[in-house]
Amino acid sequence: MAEVVEFRVPAGSAQTLLVWGLEPEPGLEHSLFSAFSKFGLLYSVQAHRNAAVAGPGYYAIIKFYSAGDASRAQRTCNGQRLFQKSPLKVCVCTKQKGFQKQVLALNSSKCQELANHYLGFNGWSSRIITLQNVSGFDGENEELGKTLQKRSVKYLCAVEVTLPNHGVRTRGVALGEADVENGEDPLEFVTATRRVQKLAVGKALSSAFQKILLVVLENGKVVVEYNSSQEEPTDFLTEEELKGLIQRADLTCNDHKRSEQQSQTESLLLLKPLFPEESSLTSPAISLPL
Question: N or C, which end of the chain has less CB nearby within 10 Å?
Answer without folding.
Answer: N
